[in-house]
Amino acid sequence: MKGLIQRVKQASVTVEGHRLSEIDTGLLLLLGVEREDGEAQVQSLCRKILSYRVFPDDQGRMNRSLQDIKGGLLVVPQFTLAADTRSGTRPGFSSAAPPDQANELYLRFIASARAALGTELVGEGRFGADMQVALVNDGPVTFLLEV
């Protein structure tokens, strides 16, 4: 399981002209699910993302987590994060989870994040949809986390 997090001042996701979710200060998470992923990966990545220290403390050091600042989390399913890009000029997707498995684990991730942060702080995209994601990247600060 892979999670690309971006520290944001604000972020939103829109489908067919309808804004599904938006957050203010927090993290935009692009979530990629691979074939071998299961509940253990969901829980491990969720814990890591919620506690990963990417927000500045009073001295300006990245020393605070999403939980510390009570920030928002916008979770967007990102099938292409599971791509194999090691060779050639076209990505391969053999390591990506099948859609049913990926959607189930995506929904479990959202449920875990909401249980930890509260429903009002966790927004979501729509699995399998053509989404438009808007963000104001803060820093920019971007990390790829894998479990």
Could you describe the 3D structure shown?
The protein is α/β, with parallel strands linked by helices. Helices cover 24% and strands 39% of the residues. It has three helices and eight strands, in the order E-E-E-H-E-E-H-E-H-E-E. The chain has helices at 39-51, 66-69, 99-117; strands at residues 2-15, 18-23, 26-32, 55-56, 62-64, 72-77, 122-124, 131-146. Strands 1, 2, 3, 6, 7 and 8 form a six-stranded mixed sheet that branches. The protein has a two-stranded antiparallel ribbon with strand order 4-5. Helix 1 (39-51) crosses helix 3 (99-117). It is globular. It starts with a strand and ends with a strand. 31% of the residues are buried. The mean pLDDT is 96.
The secondary-structure class comes to alpha/beta
Largest sheet: 6 strands, mixed
Percent range for helical residues?
A: 10-25%
* Tally of strands: 8
Oligomer: single chain
Helix/strand order, N-terminal first: EEEHEEHEHEE
- Percent strand equals 35-45%
How far the N terminus sits from the C terminus, by CA atoms, comes to 6 Å
Total helical segments: 3
Query: Judging from the principal axes of the Cα atoms, what is the shape?
Result: globular
Q: Whole-number radius of gyration? A: 15 Å
- Ranges where pLDDT stays below 50 over 5 or more residues in a row are none
Mean pLDDT, all residues: 96
